[in-house]
Design a protein that fits this description.
Elements: E1 2-7, H1 11-16, E2 28-33, H2 41-55, E3 59-65, H3 69-81, E4 88-92, H4 96-101, H5 115-121, H6 126-129, E5 133-134, E6 137-138, E7 141-146, E8 148-153, H7 154-159, H8 171-181, E9 183-184, E10 190-192, H9 203-213, H10 231-245, H11 260-265, E11 271-275, H12 279-285, E12 290-293, E13 303-304, E14 306-312, H13 318-331, H14 334-344, H15 357-365, H16 369-375, E15 379-380, H17 388-403, H18 409-424
Parallel strand pairs: 2-3, 2-4, 13-15
Antiparallel strand pairs: 1-3, 4-14, 5-6, 7-14, 8-11, 8-12, 9-10
Helix pairs in contact: 2-14, 17-18
Organism: Denitrobaculum tricleocarpae
Keywords: Signal
Biased composition (Basic and acidic residues): 412-428
Length: 428
């Protein structure tokens, strides 16, 4: 699905690439956007683009809705290799090393040379920039960003004799609360689980909440070294397994990502871990009063960041790169970032967006929106390496093996580390 719109490159953007203002001809841009992200993402992107069009006539943009994040990176790499790359795209922040290895993208320092431009690049939350920079260069600009958070059913808490306004703050409390919240009949059949931590699709992401809380980092910032078999990672995976096998507060086996919000709405679970990107969905569909909290701590607070960045592609003319940069600067500006957050639940990626009148009114009415922002103080970069899809698949397979009881956490992670080492050693 795609739509055509028209917008112009401002004189400031043209100056950034060394052209005389007003002296450039019309520029054609193609923009890949992952539409399969839930909520009002597609409608909001169309609205924002239309506003940019109205204010800036003169340049053509073909916005191509490329499907899921996985679909988007696959289509993008196919286009890059075929010589038909888009000029800009929103792609997962963790795909940065893949795009760099393909020589597909340019660092923003190549385009941003003015003091004003450098100030703009420093305006985003440091936690989001961890997955946007490497080797002293900035390759991605945060836009569709998130962290996982804890959602809880206040009615279920009250029924279980728990304070409905107080979520679990630690792993120990999460287990204690989960036992009180799990409902079993006389035959042992469960009608309500205490907790759901999804483990399908991209299980490493939510599991990284546990590893961060256990004070261990899964990969270095150069993208060429993993720590999958670190004892603290093994301990975190054992805890995840124990939630089902020992504590019996979570259903056994693989917990489906996509089915988790519905299970929460239908009271099949009293607590769930999922993305803040589900915030608007939960607000619209939960038939009960709910709360949102930072993930529980163990040795420390912590969560991974997630979501997508804007990238600018190397196989573009200087005019196209300038036009893409100008659009990215506009759509990530405070007013637009605030509208994006209000519409979707994703985290506005820069502090000044939270100071806009629209955002102040939004959080005054809906304080849970502040949780993910405040959790950024404790956040770390999402797992990202060279050969990222291969490495994360290896790690995900190890998690699945332990969760389904095929391997012990220690054995599964030892094998995963050995496989990752074989892939990554050439990048060191």
């Amino acid at each position: 699905m795609s739509f055509m719109s028209r917008f112009g490159v401002t004189a400031g953007a043209l100056a950034l690439s060394g052209f005389l203002a007003g002296g450039a001809s019309a520029v054609d841009l193609q923009f890949y956007f992952p539409v399969a992200v839930g909520g009002k993402a597609a409608d909001t992107i169309e609205e924002l683009t239309a506003e940019y069009v109205a204010a800036n006539p003169g340049v053509n943009i073909d916005a191509v809705y490329a499907g899921s994040y996985q679909d988007t990176i696959t289509k993008t790499l196919t286009a890059v290799r075929g010589g038909t790359a888009p000029q800009l795209s929103v792609i997962l922040s963790v795909d940065m090393f893949t795009l760099i290895e393909e020589d597909a993208i340019v660092p923003f320092e190549d385009l941003v040379t003015s003091a004003e431009g450098k100030l703009w690049m420093s305006s985003f939350y440091p936690a989001f920039m961890e997955n946007s920079r490497t080797g002293g260069k900035t390759y991605g600009i945060p836009f569709q960003r998130s962290t996982p958070v804890l959602y809880w059913n206040k009615e279920a808490f009250k029924e279980a004799g728990l304070d409905p306004e107080t979520p679990p703050a630690t792993w120990q409390e999460m287990v204690e609360f989960g036992k009180k919240l799990t409902k079993r009949d006389s035959n042992g059949n469960v009608s309500q689980w205490g907790l759901r931590i999804p483990s399908s699709g991209f299980p490493y992401w939510l599991f990284q909440g546990l590893t961060t809380q256990n004070d261990v980092i899964l990969a270095n910032d150069a993208g060429n070294e993993t720590n999958f078999d670190d004892p603290a990672v093994v301990e975190a995976l054992q805890f995840l397994v124990d939630l089902s096998t020992e504590h019996k507060i979570m259903q056994p086996g693989i917990v489906e990502w996509g089915a988790t919000p519905k299970a929460f709405f239908e009271r099949e679970t009293a607590m769930m871990w999922t993305t803040t990107g589900n915030l608007t969905n939960v607000r619209a569909n939960a038939p009960f009063d709910f709360g949102v909290a930072m993930l529980p701590a163990n040795k420390r607070r912590g969560a991974p960041t997630g979501g997508g960045n804007f990238y600018i592609f190397a196989d573009s003319t200087d005019e196209q790169k300038a036009g893409a940069l100008d659009f990215i600067k506009w759509i990530t500006a405070p007013e637009q970032a605030a509208r994006w957050t209000i519409a979707t639940g994703y985290v506005a990626p820069r502090p000044d967006a939270w100071e806009t009148p629209a955002m102040k009114a939004y959080v005054a009415d809906f304080k849970p929106a502040l949780v993910a922002r405040d959790q950024l103080e404790h956040a770390v970069a999402e797992l990202s390496t060279y050969q990222n899809q291969r490495v994360t698949r290896i790690f995900n397979d190890a998690l699945e093996s332990a969760i389904t009881g095929k391997s012990s956490p220690e054995a599964a992670l030892k094998e995963a580390q050995e496989k990752a080492d074989r892939i990554l050693k050439k990048y060191r």
